[in-house]
């Protein structure tokens, strides 16, 4: 059976010049993948009539479903609706249900006057099926041509997500017999992608044709994703689980987690199971590690806080790093991060502490300590361990890599130490 293929067209000059990052198509692709729709192409075009028209022609030639976001607003540069009206040979008419919804939003939700420009949001092509937008004024629009679907939605992410969830996904599931797609993900650290591929080459070669292995590297970690596609859910589930168990047995020393989750969430779950807590002392990462930890709900149960000691005086005053250490060894040194970790442990009264200090670049390095030099330390009340990194010159990448490596050092440190029984 031929898979249902989809194309995603995102519209807006702001996307092409990089002023706005396109998160819509990534989210849509993930949601379509969950229901067995294959995304064959993703295209971004500007607010230009000919470009949008051409994109529609090209995508309808290769896909069964074309999903469009953007250009449905009330301003002059929003040309998607009139273009679609002409493309499918219709005319604009007022939809009374949409008009009533727009009135409701302005009168009851926004509590501000509605002008004629807002009322025009209720004008829809008479050849389209209206998809209700519970979160905004621009409705979604569904067109059908030669048994293919074109679905237009607003570019505002939360409005698009609402229409996708409430209207589009159920519609696609109802209209088509879709395959089941199963994923299992294992995350590794401490090994490069090529070395990993070499290590599991025989495993990969032996996979059945309907199970694929993807390598997804990201800042010092590699996600290994097994994906099975088909219609026999029971046999597929059995087979992918067996293969996933085999994969875990092959990589016990580098496996971080057998779930599709970030490393800080792995640490959080580990701490919750043990009833323990952590703190951080950050210099070069400027609070980024704290951000990663606290972006997850419930992190307050195990994370006490961070001391962002960007300045050496803060290292002395709040973390107890001695002036002699800073003078003799420097802020980026094994001795300094040891004292930073112990200072955080003492000040924030946690079971574990992670400290990092480094030179992120693009300047600030020396022959002795070039840009990318990082020292990390992890401590509990009995022990401190340290690790040195030699990264490259790109600042944002160095910050990400420092955070990932520091968290992984913390994870291993926690795992290797048996928690004391709680009284």
TrEMBL record:
The cross-references to SMART domains, in alphabetical order and at most eight, read:
MoCF_biosynth
Domain of life, per lineage: Bacteria
**Domain MoaB/Mog residue range list:** 7-175
Please provide an example of a Pfam family that matches this protein in its UniProt record: MoCF_biosynth
What stretches pass through the bilayer?
A: none
What family is reported?
Belongs to the CinA family.
Q: What is this protein called?
A: CinA-like protein
Give the source species.
Flavihumibacter solisilvae
């Amino acid at each position: 059976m031929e898979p249902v293929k989809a194309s995603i067209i995102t519209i807006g000059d702001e996307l092409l010049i990089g002023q706005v990052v396109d998160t819509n198509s990534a989210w849509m692709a993930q949601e379509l993948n969950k229901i067995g729709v294959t995304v064959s192409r993703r295209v971004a075009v500007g607010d230009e009539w000919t470009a949008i028209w051409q994109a529609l022609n090209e995508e309808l030639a290769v896909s069964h479903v074309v999903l469009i976001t953007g250009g449905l607003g009330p301003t002059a540069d929003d040309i998607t609706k009139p273009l679609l009206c002409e493309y499918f040979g219709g005319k604009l008419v007022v939809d009374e249900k949409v008009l009533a919804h727009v009135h409701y939003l302005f009168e009851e939700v926004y509590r501000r006057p509605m002008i004629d420009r807002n009322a025009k949001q209720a004008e829809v092509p008479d050849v389209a099926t209206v998809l209700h937008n519970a979160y905004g004024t621009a409705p979604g629009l569904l067109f059908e041509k030669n048994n293919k679907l074109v679905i237009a939605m607003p570019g505002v992410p939360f409005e698009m997500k609402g229409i996708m969830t409430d209207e589009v996904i159920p519609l696609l599931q109802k209209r088509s017999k879709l395959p089941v797609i199963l994923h299992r993900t294992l995350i590794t650290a401490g090994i490069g992608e090529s070395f990993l591929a070499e290590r599991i080459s025989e495993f990969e070669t032996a996979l059945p044709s309907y199970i694929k292995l993807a390598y997804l590297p990201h800042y010092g970690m590699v996600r290994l994703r097994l994906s099975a596609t088909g219609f026999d859910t029971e046999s597929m589930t059995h087979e992918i689980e067996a293969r996933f168990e085999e994969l875990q047995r092959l990589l016990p020393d580098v496996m971080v987690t057998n779930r599709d989750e970030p490393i800080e969430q792995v640490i959080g779950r580990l701490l919750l199971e043990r009833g323990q807590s952590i703190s951080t002392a950050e210099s070069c990462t400027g609070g980024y590690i704290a951000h990663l930890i606290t972006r997850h709900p419930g992190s307050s149960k195990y994370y006490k806080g961070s001391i962002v000691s960007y300045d050496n005086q803060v290292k002395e005053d709040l973390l107890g790093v001695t002036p002699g250490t800073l003078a003799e060894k420097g802020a980026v040194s094994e001795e300094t991060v040891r004292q930073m970790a112990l200072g955080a442990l003492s000040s924030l009264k946690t079971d574990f502490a992670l400290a990092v200090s480094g030179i992120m670049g693009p300047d600030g390095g020396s022959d002795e300590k070039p840009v990318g030099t990082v020292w990390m330390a992890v401590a509990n009340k009995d022990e401190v361990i340290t690790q040195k990194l030699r990264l490259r010159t790109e600042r944002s990448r160095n910050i990400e890599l420092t955070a990932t490596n520091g968290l992984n050092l913390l994870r291993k440190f926690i795992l290797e130490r048996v928690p004391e029984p709680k009284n």
